[in-house]
């Protein structure tokens, strides 16, 4: 079976500084992988490289989505192929209503896939349905994207985007950052609702608490730009107790 995501010997740098150092990762459909590690390990860089963010140069290796190399694809093309990145700090877009943004994103994706665009009423019904499932107030959809939103509202809005776009590969970059326990539960419930045999997740986090709610199938420890240990969900509890010092020493 072809893996959903295959990262082979990935080396990457930004502004001449090497950050990823021969990283290997395989994510199959239906799997949730957690990537943990200390600050500076390269966790967020990995998510940015997978999503195609500008400024990150891949110097060696390859990234395959369903067997197809993504490295030459623009970020928009990767998104239409089914890659979704949930940011640690979602951006504000003043002047663009959230509903307008969501409708445009949905139709851009559908157009690229050769599907008919949704009419405004159909798009609004679809957004309202998903918003209701996630407990998102409709007033939020009239406000500019993320402008004046609390940390929890921003993450809920991003979870709603993910649910609407139905990606194949969901990358969550420290999505628990700045969330209180109630917001964390709401976001986690939204993510768990999206788990399916056809979809894979890469969940990047410092802390085990997120993994109490989004229970991973596989946990990886990342240090100095590569994965240095892989285990089951119990590895996250071990890291919570012992920290990352031994892995930083090994990487050094």
Automatic annotation (TrEMBL):
Listed Pfam families: ABC_tran
Protein name: Fe-S cluster assembly ATPase SufC
NCBIfam families reported for this sequence: sufC
Source organism per UniProt: Methyloceanibacter methanicus
Annotated Gene3D superfamilies: P-loop containing nucleotide triphosphate hydrolases
Keywords (A to Z) from UniProt: ATP-binding, Nucleotide-binding
PROSITE patterns given in the database record: ABC_TRANSPORTER_2 (PS50893)
Gene Ontology molecular function: any one: ATP hydrolysis activity
PANTHER family: ABC TRANSPORTER I FAMILY MEMBER 6, CHLOROPLASTIC (PTHR43204:SF1)
Family: Belongs to the ABC transporter superfamily. Ycf16 family.
Keyword Cytoplasm carried by entry: no
ABC transporter domain mapped to chain residues: 5-249
Record field: transmembrane: none
SMART domains associated with the record: AAA
